[in-house]
Design brief:
Elements (H helix, E strand, L loop, with lengths): L1 H10 L3 H21 L1 H5 L11 H17 L5 H27 L6 H19 L8 H20 L14 H29 L2
C-alpha cells in the first residue's frame, strides 16, 4: 500500500497522468451538466450560472489540469477549483448518505455518484501542494463560494434534494455553509503546509 501511495504521489504531475485526469474530469463535467438539465430549464436565466454546482467545480478543476499541461499556473482558478471541487465532492456524498439514513433505497446511480464525487474531493486535496495560492485568490474564491451558498438557499436554486431531505432544507443549507468554510480552510491549510514542508 505504501508503494502504491508513493507511486501515485510521484505521478501527479506526469503528463500521462494529467491527460488521464483531464479526460475523466472533462467527461464527468459534461455528464454533470446533462444531469442538471431539467433544473437549469426551470431556473430563471440570470441565475443559471449558479445552479450546476458539482459540474462547475469539476469543470474548473479540468481547466486547472489543462493549465498544468501547458506549464502554467492561474492562482484564482486554482483556488476556485480546489475549494469548489472539494466542497461539492464531499457535499454530494454527504447528501446521498443522509438520504440512505432517512430511508432512501440504495441505487446504482448513488454508488456511481459517490465514487465520482469522492474522486473530486480527493483530487482537489492531492493537488493542493501545486497551487500557487495567496490571500487574494483564496479570498475571492471564498466570496464566490459563500455567495453561491446564499443564492442556493435564499433563492432556492440549490441542487434538488432527495424527497426525504426536503423538509430539512434549512439544515442542509446550514451544513453547506459550514462545509464551505471547512473547504476554504482545508485547501488553504493543505497548500500552506505542503509548500512549507515541501511534501
Amino acid at each position: 500500500m505504501k508503494g502504491l501511495w508513493k507511486w501515485l504521489w510521484a505521478s501527479l504531475m506526469e503528463r500521462w497522468f494529467l491527460w488521464m485526469l483531464f479526460i475523466i474530469n472533462f467527461l464527468g463535467t459534461i455528464y454533470g451538466f446533462i444531469w442538471y438539465g431539467n433544473q437549469l430549464e426551470s431556473t430563471v436565466p440570470w441565475l443559471r450560472i449558479f445552479v450546476p454546482d458539482s459540474p462547475t467545480g469539476s469543470g474548473l478543476f479540468t481547466l486547472v489540469i489543462l493549465t498544468y499541461l501547458l506549464g502554467k499556473h492561474i492562482p484564482l482558478l486554482e483556488a476556485l477549483a480546489g475549494i469548489t471541487n472539494f466542497k461539492y465532492g464531499v457535499w454530494a456524498v454527504g447528501v446521498i448518505i443522509a438520504g440512505w439514513a432517512m430511508g432512501n433505497e440504495v441505487r446504482w446511480t448513488d454508488i456511481m455518484l459517490m465514487a465520482s464525487h469522492t474522486g473530486m474531493a480527493v483530487e482537489s486535496a492531492l493537488y493542493a501542494r501545486f497551487y500557487k495560492l495567496s490571500w487574494l485568490p483564496v479570498g475571492l474564491a471564498a466570496l464566490w463560494t459563500l455567495n453561491n451558498d446564499f443564492l442556493d438557499y435564499v433563492m432556492f436554486i440549490h441542487p434538488w434534494l432527495p424527497d426525504v431531505l426536503v423538509p430539512y432544507t434549512g439544515i442542509v443549507g446550514l451544513c453547506t455553509v459550514m462545509l464551505s468554510l471547512i473547504s476554504i480552510a482545508m485547501i488553504w491549510y493543505l497548500n500552506l503546509f505542503q509548500q512549507r514542508n515541501k511534501v
